[in-house]
Amino acid sequence: MNEQNFSNHAKFVPLFHAFVIPVLVINLGVHIYSLFKYSMNTPYFAFVGIFSVVLAVALLVLAFLARIFALGVQDRVIRLEERLRCERLLPDDLKPRIGEFTIDQLVSLRFASDAELSALARTVLDGKVNSRKAIKKMVQNWRADYQRV
Fold first, then answer.
1. How do residues 12-24 score in pLDDT, each as one tens digit?
2. Kindly report the CA angle at 18 between 21 and 20, in degrees rounded to 5?
3. pLDDT tens across 65-76, in order?
4. What is the pTM of this model?
5. Which residues contact 73 (CB under 8 A, 6 or more apart)?
């Protein structure tokens, strides 16, 4: 695997991003086209055409929700892992503040090396930095996460 950093850490799943989503979008387009081209002649075919479009939309929404739900579960696991890591690595004055971290902050701090976690955690909490992107850009020594969903 290539060394991970801010510019290449986003996960691209070819079967999902380059196959499933495009096929579902094309499927929706085909059903919308068919609805207007062929289904308006009789009430039965209009119903079938409308239902086909609704089903195509539902499949597309399902694909996005499956991805969003998986990312949500991943974020909860990361929150737990990072809280445990903070308990182990943060100085005593910062340990009582672990509960102040938001999920976005913890998800971003997971990329910080052990050596820089304390200073970065203090900066994030004191500066109320909440943007995942901003926190990730602050990381100097990237700690790779190759098990992302």
1. 889 999 999 999 9
2. 35
3. 999 999 999 999
4. 0.79
5. 149
